[in-house]
């Protein structure tokens, strides 16, 4: 008979029940070979008295070990350790703990993970793309969320449709038709888990590996990553103060990705003539246009230009938007507007990805939009953000000396401060350590030599803007950031 | 001067403001060429009087057209239609509306979308994998969801971490250690938007295109789709009443995917010896094991075997689970447990996919687990599902004549009724039209000749089970389903 008592640690009072502690301890001894095959365990009565615990505790532990196949036993005949699969068991907890022998990521996996950025720090100030979160009508939102869960929770608890909840698709279609001039109905809308997922879906489903894609340069980093992850070839296209410059002489792409309402990050609004020229090129080349309308709702000068999607009746323009900026980012809801003949295929593939976004959230968002709450919130935020834009711009002017280097943006949630002589990458890394989340303009560039800081104002109070600008100012004065 | 009045439709009272109706009508005439470049528009005063609307309405419409570049005007000099990008504009709304000339999905897109299943019908009865939704503690859930939104909504409103909300990762790690024998802490847990996303992430990041993957045959359809979408090669592995049969002679795979707690869909529980043999093979071949523990919480006979992940200290076993079955499917939350050195790469790639799951939902789920609500709910559901399992099984026995063809499942939410002589695919399609959501066993097969019905019981009352079984019985009696 084994001296099991000598091998076992003392049992403790705590969250883990005693029988489970005992089970785990014996199991470990079996797995690491201290209790070899066919050794006989003490009777439950004997072990209980040795350990001064109740016999019931021991019996529960033995039962679990029996159920899992670690031991065998028959009434009266005693309880024995089973011989397990192979003698390599002992190795398992000893020799092979080193990571060196483990498989790692695949080469594809290494490449894919290097494209991503990981998580941001939500405490940083002047980070681009962050809306004001204190002013969101939280009480109303809570009421809308509760409505379904109170009235008929089951109705929205089961699996839903990959295309998205019908009421939300209807509310989005109405909103996009009326506010953005998008030609669509609910059947063309696919609700996504954020705009990034929309880019991913389009890249995988509309493009072949190796296809050429026009991207703005400077341009949106997330889109670039999404395209490269889908193994397509990026063709950087120059951008001026009005946005992407169409080039009829360039090699024909399979897709043109752009942010026509408010070029990210440089801020231009694509004029009608360029929009039409691009639609014309897309028709000649029989290629797609992917219109990313990420923050078009916040326009301060002039009225918004209607979406390109509405200009092209042939259905070549795919349209992407998000609720992250007009509601809040952690909601994780975006949308695609597609020609109807593509919708079913997108939904089928979506069922392999994440199926659909949470339904209670979708339903609440639908009512938030349909009830007019969204438009009311946007109207208020447009005023607030315009004032913050003016404030940041005024504070920056003395700093950089010239309006040429920082146009007052007509729209959006950030401005683009040009600093052509500065190593913006080193600067932004330093600013990050000081709690300031401006992004380096160069990080958005492929071939463009543009340098500067992309500075968000929408989500920050005047005192935060003051603090952020002071830190930027000190950084520029104290350290040599020249390239 | 043009007779604009004759071209325009009557303005209506409704949701769309009159100025916008007018703007849209004129814009359309410009885009389709009825109003050619350089034609002069009537003055706002003149048009207002013609249309019998206020002059202000006309001025607003003109302003919008000016802002968007459709017309030009100078005070006193009149208002003119702009020449737009090209003469192909006229074509846009006329000739090219045909879908035939549009680009379609890429070949990759066609292939990917064919792998998916699209949406299910949540009204069907006897569908596998659907939990009971009426008994979920909705009031408590609502309270937990409201807590954060009431107290500190802003805190959870911004972008979060791709790895998932820390409290949820902690709660999951505690739960998995204690209830499932998984060796992990919060740093190893990645919160996913459902288990399917976990499979997708592992397939893309741990496997190279062309790598060989063992899948159970019959096996889970979603996993198979996720792997094929990542361009890997499936090696179907036979399954018996105890689950996957390890084959040391087979060509070495790069990953072994399996459902050891409760083989999907045939129901076996993988014995300890096979678990250890597989871990041993994985060590020899230096390959991954992906353990999908989708419904292990519902075990009715014996105690649950601890997870394979906990048997392998070397970190070769990646572990996937979901909250869809123990909470509710539309929540869209699942998790991965990874060796720590992989976590950062997974999170970086995740930022290109959907960034993270909604934060308020994650926070509420964290408290639901940590407060013990989850375990309490599971305990209740285990009793309920055991009774429903017995009920369905009793009702089926007379129907199929033999216990051989339908083992009473030890665990889970469905049973697997063998019908070797039946065209189960045609049968299940017919049943679908009758409101019964059983799945054909053959749909889960690659090389296996198994035929039958996968029938869910967890989410259905006894009267629903009665109705479902009657429909199945009638179908089997009335129609020849022989292959």
From TrEMBL, chains A, B:
Entries under SMART domains matching the protein: HTH_GNTR
Domain HTH gntR-type: 16-84
Keywords: DNA-binding, Pyridoxal phosphate, Transcription, Transcription regulation
Similarity-based family: In the C-terminal section; belongs to the class-I pyridoxal-phosphate-dependent aminotransferase family.
Full protein name: HTH gntR-type domain-containing protein
Organism: Pokkaliibacter plantistimulans
């Amino acid at each position: 008979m084994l001296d099991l008592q000598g091998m076992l640690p003392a049992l403790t009072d705590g969250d883990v029940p005693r029988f489970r502690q005992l089970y785990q301890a014996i199991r470990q001894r079996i797995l690491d070979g201290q209790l070899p095959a066919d050794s006989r365990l003490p009777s439950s009565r004997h072990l209980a008295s040795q350990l001064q615990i109740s016999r019931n505790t021991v019996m529960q532990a033995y039962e679990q070990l029996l159920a899992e196949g670690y031991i065998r036993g028959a009434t009266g005949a005693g309880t024995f350790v089973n011989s397990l699969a192979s003698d390599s068991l002992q190795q398992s907890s000893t020799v092979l703990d080193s990571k060196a022998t483990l498989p790692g990521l695949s080469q594809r996996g290494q490449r894919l993970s290097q494209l991503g950025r990981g998580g941001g720090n939500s405490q940083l100030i002047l980070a681009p793309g962050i809306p004001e979160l204190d002013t969101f009508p939280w009480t109303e939102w809570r009421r809308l969320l509760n409505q379904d869960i109170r009235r008929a929770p089951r109705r929205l608890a089961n699996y839903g449709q990959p295309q998205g909840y019908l009421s939300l698709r209807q509310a989005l279609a109405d909103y996009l038709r009326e506010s953005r001039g998008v030609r669509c109905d609910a059947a063309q809308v696919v609700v996504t888990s954020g705009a990034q997922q929309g880019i991913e879906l389009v890249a995988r489903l509309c493009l072949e590996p190796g296809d050429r894609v026009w991207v703005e340069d400077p341009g949106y980093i997330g889109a670039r990553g999404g395209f490269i992850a889908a193994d397509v070839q990026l063709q950087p296209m120059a951008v001026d103060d009005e946005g992407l410059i169409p080039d009829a002489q360039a090699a024909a792409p399979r897709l043109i990705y752009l942010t026509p309402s408010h070029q990210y990050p440089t801020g231009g609004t694509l004029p009608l003539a360029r929009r039409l020229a691009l639609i014309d090129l897309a028709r000649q080349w029989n290629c797609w246009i992917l219109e990313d309308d990420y923050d078009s709702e916040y326009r301060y000068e002039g009225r918004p230009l209607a979406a390109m999607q509405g200009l092209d009746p042939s259905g070549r323009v795919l349209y992407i938007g998000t609720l992250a900026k007009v509601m809040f980012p952690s909601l994780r809801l975006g949308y695609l507007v597609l020609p109807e003949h593509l919708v079913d295929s997108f939904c089928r593939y979506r069922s392999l990805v994440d199926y659909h976004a949470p339904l209670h959230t979708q339903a609440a968002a639908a009512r938030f939009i349909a009830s007019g709450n969204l438009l009311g919130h946007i109207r208020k935020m447009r005023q607030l953000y315009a004032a913050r834009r003016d404030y940041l711009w005024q504070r920056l002017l003395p700093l950089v000396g010239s309006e040429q280097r920082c146009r007052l943006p007509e729209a959006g949630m950030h401005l683009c401060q040009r600093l052509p002589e500065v190593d913006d990458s080193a600067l932004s890394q330093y600013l990050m350590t000081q709690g300031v989340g401006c992004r380096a303009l160069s990080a958005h560039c492929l071939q463009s030599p543009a340098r500067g800081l992309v500075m968000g104002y929408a989500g920050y109070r005047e005192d935060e803007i003051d603090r952020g600008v002071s830190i930027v100012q000190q950084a520029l004065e104290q350290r040599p950031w020249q390239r």
